[in-house]
Amino acid sequence: MRTINLPLMESSTWYPIVVWSENIFFLLILCAVSYLFIFAIFSFKKQKVRFKETRKRYRFLILLTAHDINDLVYESLHSFYDQDFPDVNYDIAVVSKHISDNAGRIFKDSPVMLIKRPKDGHFRCQSMDFALKQIDSDYDVVVIMKAGNTVKPNFLEEINKAYHSGGMAIQTHCVKKDMKSNTAILNALSEEINNSIFRRGHVNLGFSSGLTGSGMAFNYNWFRKNIGKVRKNGLTKQLETLLLKQGIFIEYLEHLYTYEVKNSNHSDSSRHRHYWYSNMFSSLVRVIGDLPKAFFAGNFDYCDKIIQWIIPSRFLLLFLICVFAVGLFLVDWVLSIKWFGLLFFIIMVFDLAIPQKFRNWRTFFALFSLPILTFLNLFNIFRIRNRKKK
Q1: End-to-end alpha carbon distance in the chain
Q2: What's the CA angle centered on 185, arms 184 and 191, to 5 degrees?
Q3: For residue 221, what is the domain's CATH number?
Q4: Cβ–Cβ < 8 Å for 132, 51
Q5: What span, in angstroms and rounded, lies between the C-alpha atoms of 116 and 119?
Q6: Angle at the Cα of 212 (from 282 to 128), degrees rounded to 5?
Q7: Which of 206, 242, 258, 281 is the most interior residue, by most CB within 10 Å?
Q8: In a 3-state reduction of DSSP, which class is residue 150?
Q9: Residues 39 and 143 in one domain
């Protein structure tokens, strides 16, 4: 094949430096993909339900956060009304920014506690902290939900068993519902890849599960004491930091589902990912200095979490590999061979992590929307960088 002769390649001084830099960058990306590969392999082992039956019934507080009291809230409440769990053992509190007069009348004679968050409580952590300070009753477990989350009748019973077995922090299996658009399918697929690698794969290898923001359960006293330490946005990552710093393992209940509404169009998905990237960068800045201390203290669970945040997102990894593979192919095809090999490697990792239910023609056609989502992800990264410069 004929290569493009560039002045840079003809320079005896700069060309070796560029090649060495490219090789070092390749090794860094290879390490990131290998990290994903290891946990993707371990995700093949299906979790066994290892929590024994117990007659003891703990007291639960279901904390549901919402922006408005709407149909999504009522749908969530109905799923908790139908629990195969004693009614006296759990209460429900709804924390909302807006509460209409009609909603106030509906909940007036209801056992559900309706709490209006303060005007300065712009973030979810502030809403929950405020709500817990308004509740006098004592509980054993707090379950964190979002408006639109629904569960099956055995939800509280299964968490009760996990908590009785020593689970101080529990993440259930969050799955998306109403996958009607290509964007919704790709978002659901992305979340299931996360479940395979960062939850099932991690727990199977002895590391803590990642949190998702809903379908979570914590020891009530721990959560009440620590939720006030969370700074504004970035709830899940800050909770993970607090838990792992204190040596608390995060369990993952793969068999217990939390159904949630997912963004179904490009604009909503873009806003969600912008929020995610912003939280990731801010969280990494706060904890990167803890890595050496955690390593020498033997807190490898926390070390793994920090390394996980250092690694670029899957979308960004895929984009960088494609750019280098195509770019080097146009310059010198020999240099591009290893990058095309790495492209095959990361696609194989994704394939390993995809559940069987997504292996169909509907998912295949939805993948044609992937370039648009990748562009939106990159746009979000540049937005965050520009905002920080300002």
Answers
A1: 46
A2: 90
A3: 3.90.550.10
A4: no
A5: 9
A6: 80
A7: 258
A8: strand
A9: no
For residue 320, being part of any structural domain is answered with yes
Task: Please state, in angstroms and rounded to a whole number, the distance separating the CA atoms of residues 153 and 142.
Answer: 17
Q: How many domains does the chain have?
A: 2
Using the 8-state DSSP alphabet, how is residue 88 labeled?
G
Q: Are 85 and 156 in contact (CB under 8 A)?
A: yes
Where a domain ends, among 259, 279, 299? Answer: 279
- Give the angle subtended at the CA of 162 by the CAs of 157 and 167, to the nearest 5°: 140
Q: Are residues 273 and 358 in the same domain?
A: no
Beta bridge partners of 10: none
- pLDDT tens-place values along the chain, 390 residues long: 445 555 445 455 767 777 888 899 999 999 999 999 999 999 988 777 678 889 999 999 999 999 888 889 999 999 999 999 999 999 999 998 878 777 777 777 788 899 888 777 678 888 899 999 989 888 999 999 999 999 999 999 999 999 999 999 999 999 988 777 777 888 888 899 999 999 999 999 999 999 999 999 999 999 999 999 998 778 899 999 999 999 999 999 999 999 988 655 545 555 555 566 666 677 777 888 999 999 999 999 999 999 999 998 888 899 899 999 999 898 888 889 999 999 999 999 999 999 888 888 887 777 776 776 666 666 655 555 555 555
Tokens of 187: 């978002």
Q: Indicate if 229 and 349 belong to the same structural domain.
A: no
For residue 317, the enclosing domain spans: 7-43+308-389
Q: Per DSSP, which regions of the chain are E strands?
A: 60-68, 90-98, 113-116, 141-146, 150-151, 169-177, 216-219, 250-261
Q: Are residues 229 and 122 in the same domain?
A: yes
φ/ψ of 359, rounded to 5, equals -90, 80
Q: Torsions phi, psi of 97, nearest 5?
A: -75, -40
Question: In the prediction, which pLDDT does 25 show?
Answer: 94
The residue type found at 119 is: K
Task: List CB contacts of 190: < 8 A, sequence separation 6 or more.
Answer: 314
